[in-house]
Model the fold of this input.
Amino acid sequence: LALAALVLALMAWRGRRTAGLVAALALVAQIGLATPFASGWLRASLEGLVPDAGGPDDAAAGAIIVLGADLVRTATGADVGPLTLERMRAAAALQRRTGLPLLVTGGTRLPDDQATLAEVMAHRFAADFGLPVRWIEPHARNTRENARFSAALLRGEEIGHAYAVTHAWHLPRALLSFRQVGFPVTPVGERQALAPDGRASDFVPRPDHLARSWFYLREWAGLAFYAWRGG
Done:
């Protein structure tokens, strides 16, 4: 912010009023996006697109699809990141309730590690939750491919409906992807948040909330791009 203020002052001093105005507006937007109110509103706007994401029991479902998210480097090699772990936790609870087999999907690899995200997820399900994974889909590079490859795998097993487990803010893009490949899923959204209530602390800028705001804006952009491209 200090650097931005310096740039604004320099522009004003050199008489570039239009450029200075644009820079000032950009700075105000950055400050606004850094508030918990903005990041919370953006997240709630995504989650509100799928209001019924609590994973109600669905007799038609024949499997549980767990969409991978982040893969991180540790001292012992590749491991699931916090977002992936949250999705796995929700899927484990659902599996214990329904008894349905698990499918994990994610083709992300670290540059110096051959294990894919899906393979690491399968290992963690067994080691941390005591649950076997029936199907590993290790090729998907994005949400669209998560849906396409998982649907093809399950159709090969004569399963035509499944639960889809991901974060509530990611469900709109995930469900659109499954619809575009013609595979029905029942949404299960992990960690649905409450919308900001307007308390004073919601308007105090914080660096972590700026990162979250850009993250949710990227999710909106991805959703728009998927809708534009179609199936």
Q: What stands out?
A: The chain has a mean pLDDT of 87.
